[in-house]
Amino acid sequence: MAASRRRLRLVARPVPGGQATDRAASADRIARSAAHPGDGVAAVLGWLADLAERSWTTAERVPLEDLVGWSAVPGRGDLVHRTGRFYRIHGLDVTAPDGPVPHWRQPVIDQPEVGVLGLLAREFDGVLHFLVQAKAEPGNVNGLQISPTVQATRSNYTGAHGGRAVPYLEYFRDRERHRVIADVRQSEQGAWFHRKRNRNMVVEVREDLPVRPGFRWLTLGQLHRLLAVDDVVNMDTRTVLACLPLTGVTPDEPPDPLPTDDRFRAALRRSARAASAALSAELLSWVTDRRSLTAMQARRVPLAETHGWRWRDGRIAHHRGRFFEVVGVAVRARGREVDGWTQPMIEAVGTGVVAFLVRRVGGVLHVLVHARAEPGSVDVVELAPTVQCQPDNYLDLPAGARPPYLDEVLDAPPERVRFAATLSEEGGRFFHTRNRYLVVEVGPRGVPTHPDYRWVTVRQLDALLRHSHYLNVQARSLVACLHSLRHPNRGES
């Protein structure tokens, strides 16, 4: 192990070929990067701590009425920016006749722009590395988190904020000179965004580039190990990592020093390369069927007409104190494109639970996914984790509204919890909003299957991620966490 953890010489090796990339070769190189721990987790955490003294944000809650540049539209109440850019918060009227709650209204973020979430890749000393940024977002609970190379809305990179240019953006806009490893539009939180999409990209550069302060090259193995640390790898990095073509091959690996976990990891690796796991017509038909049978409809309404929500004491909250609040935030920043601003944000009430149930079938790991309808999704239904909820939200709802499998997750014995970390959601729009991400292996008796749930392999999930709007953002985060379990000693320094 000491030999595998040597410090890499940062000597670039030319990248052959052009834009047309052989997917199997890419997957093999990415898998080798996933198996390499680089210079360890402790070095990265120390780097973040050092940077935190020079790059930071402070966010203070302020009344919505005191936001500078934001105002409520007369007669509608919608929160809008004076430029008409960035995003707005309006109301959404939702009907779901087949659901436990057939009708409701709520605030929602409307951000029609397609942003860029991009990782740059480069091979050093025979190992693929990814350029990440230590970025402080106003909604982060702990300041700096690991961000993609580029994390920008269209308003940001077209200069609507009047700030500094977005570093490295040119590599994602001028792709012909480089190698595109992944490029797909994906959704964001369908419960809080109205049809929000971002372009998830990984581009391998074919030339030297300067590493700016606050940026660092990491192996995929380092990123996977950092996923196990609470609130370090941000949501945007997780969704881009999920889009990497990591399945299909597995490099030679040293013997697993943890025999009790050996069979689980072997099943996970077999699930990632299972030949029978192609995108079958049956699986696609099941997704199409769920979408076609779902009667959920959502339409815009004025924010002032979101019955059950009250604008009081400078914030918008549900009358039962559940779900989430719309709050105002005043931000001061150092090391960002703009040094200070105010904005509205969504703050969840309580910490959520996001979990995959998994089981081994014939030595191959299978994942239980949920065909979940959310009002803000582009195609209504996307594949979600087995459990995705804030448990406290269901205390006042009918018993039938309690999510299936929630108790199996919450009551799981420690030896069946394969992954557990509390991770932040996107810190640019959500204030101190976090979920407990879990991968839980079911017991030998299994669990009953509901019509809106289905067992799939990891390779099937990977195949769906080559296309837009099949896996929601929480499921994509969990896919990245699942891949981090393929190699032992995730927590080593």
TrEMBL record:
InterPro entries: EvaA-like, EvaA-like_sf. GO terms for molecular function: lyase activity. Residues 43-244, 281-482 form the dTDP-4-dehydro-6-deoxy-alpha-D-glucopyranose 2,3-dehydratase domain. Signal peptide: none annotated. This is NDP-hexose 2,3-dehydratase family protein.
